[in-house]
Design a protein that fits this description.
Blueprint lengths: L18 H58 L14 E4 L9 E4 L13 E5 L2 E3 L10 E10 L4 E10 L7 H4 L12 E8 L5
Antiparallel strand pairs: 1-2, 1-5, 3-4, 3-5, 5-6, 6-7
Length: 200
């Protein structure tokens, strides 16, 4: 008697994904990619905004130091009053200049930021931000120096405002030296210092 081995071959039917499953997985993948892209975009915008804020803070502090240098240079040149350049006008700008005594430029009310916003724009050239002779039509940053000078006491409250992304409008609060309107959310920073006549 011989034993014959019979082998049964089982066949399986392979099933593919249905059209609904394919569409659902494509939707989930697309939604995930869109969320990641939005997150990267938001992070990039935030990084650029932080960079602008850091530059603006530096420019604001630089404005204060330049005003302080203008006062001290006036004294060093023999002036009896280091505040002679401050006058009663509050609308100022200041630059690096070959002549430190003429670096501070304070004009009358016709040079207020709301009247001449271009006068306060800073142009980046030669590794420095400065106020050009001819105001550029657009610039990233503007710096406005507000000086509240008390002639009787020979003291000055100096505020250096730096703002960006505002276009041609400058709120009246800033040109009146009110710092509460100047916040990072509004794309504005300021530094203030109270200068005294330390020679007396």
């Amino acid at each position: 008697m011989s034993l014959v081995a019979h082998t049964k071959i089982k066949t399986r039917t392979l099933k593919g994904f249905s059209l609904g499953e394919v569409l659902l997985s494509a939707f989930v993948l697309t939604a995930g990619l869109l969320a990641i892209t939005a997150l990267i975009s938001s992070s990039l915008r935030s990084s650029l905004g932080i960079g602008d804020s850091i530059i603006a803070v530096g420019l604001s502090q630089e404005g204060i130091e330049l005003v302080r240098n203008a006062r001290d240079n006036a004294w060093a040149s023999g002036s009896a009053d280091g505040f002679t350049k401050f006058s009663s006008h509050k609308h100022c700008r200041i630059n690096y200049n070959s002549n430190p005594l003429s670096a501070l430029d304070c004009n009358n009310d016709s040079s207020r930021p709301s009247v001449q916003p271009g006068r306060y724009r800073l142009q980046y050239t030669g590794g420095l931000y400065s106020h050009p002779i001819i105001a550029p039509s657009s610039a990233r940053f503007s710096r406005y120096i507000y000086i509240d000078y008390n002639a009787g006491q020979k003291t000055a409250l100096v505020k250096s405002f730096v703002y960006w992304g505002w276009g041609a409008t400058v709120p009246a609060n800033i040109e009146n030296g009110i710092s509460s309107a100047c916040t990072i959310q509004n794309k504005c920073v300021f530094t203030e210092v109270f200068l005294t006549n330390w020679r007396n």
